[in-house]
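Q: Got a minute? One more chain.
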Amino acid sequence: MIRSHCPSCRTVFKVPAEKLGKRVRCRRCGTTFTIAAETSDEPLGAAYLEFDNPPSGSQVDPWQASPSAQQGAIAAAAGGAEATQESADETPRVPLLGATRVYVREIGRTLLLMARPQSLIVLAIVCVICSLQLVAMFALCFALPMQIILAGWYLAYLLNVVVSGAANEDGLPSLTMEDGVVGGILYPLLKFVAITVLSMAPLGLLLISFARAGELDGIEALSVWARVLQRDFSAMLTLEPGHQLAAWLMLGLGLVFQPIMLLVVAVDTIRSLLRVDLMARTIIRTAPGYAVLLVLTLVTNAAPVLLTVLLGLEDPESMLPRLGEWFALSVAVVCAGVLLSVLQMRATGLYYHFFKTRFAWSWG
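A: Always. Here it is, folded:
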């Protein structure tokens, strides 16, 4: 037997020597990692991995008896309640703030994961593919189909990152597209469109109420909502001062739900977006952790827009005399957006992994 440990929860495992180099999943925290030998000495304890059978004559590991007991490892790492033996129908009480600290630490660990050579290669390929959208802008009649295909592929990969984070896998997902054009491009694109429309629905309903009351022209209300859907939040400033406060509040309310909507469509179907009540209850139950995710989401959405404005890249036609400079700076902004988006998507998946016992519903 050799000794190895989970890189996430640091649990020490006793592993048969022939398992060296195999990818396994930790029974305690769900992390997927590759077995690496540390010593040939017998380790303390009798914890074992998913592929192992319980040691002969030993008591069944309580972590296997209860899926929710995975959170006990988080509790121990967070300095809260000890990871004691739980029965199959008991849910361990993980300190919320302690779990949040572990969650934040895992987000920081994602930066190290992204810095691995294999991850850097994957991220470089994603950046190149996303940069092709800049070229597609000048493809005339082929511009729209090219942008749809490239955007759909990119969004599909981001959803895979969320799923990978939910399982706390020790690495970024591969770039393979196994679901074809419809399942691998169009359906992910539809999911993101649904998230955008639903998260902006409170603002849209408010603008409709203004229009029905005669306080706002219907065409103007539709124009403002359409611009906000395209992340042009300057459209809000065209409203009357008396309407702006209510409009900003409704916009903020919708944006608060965006991260959990993203998680829902990544691990389930679009139909689950209709259960706003369950999403709201989950946000309340996991408030500290969700606040961390929300801040990261806002930074990810705002950073590329701010960089585009600061670098003067919002009007490509005005920079035609300096096309090379515009393209180089735009590629840099795209790459920054990709890195932040991958980090945010990984954090979205980790949010489910570390707080799933507090969710109002479960996907198994």
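A: The first helix runs from residue 62 to 65.
Q: Perfect, thanks.
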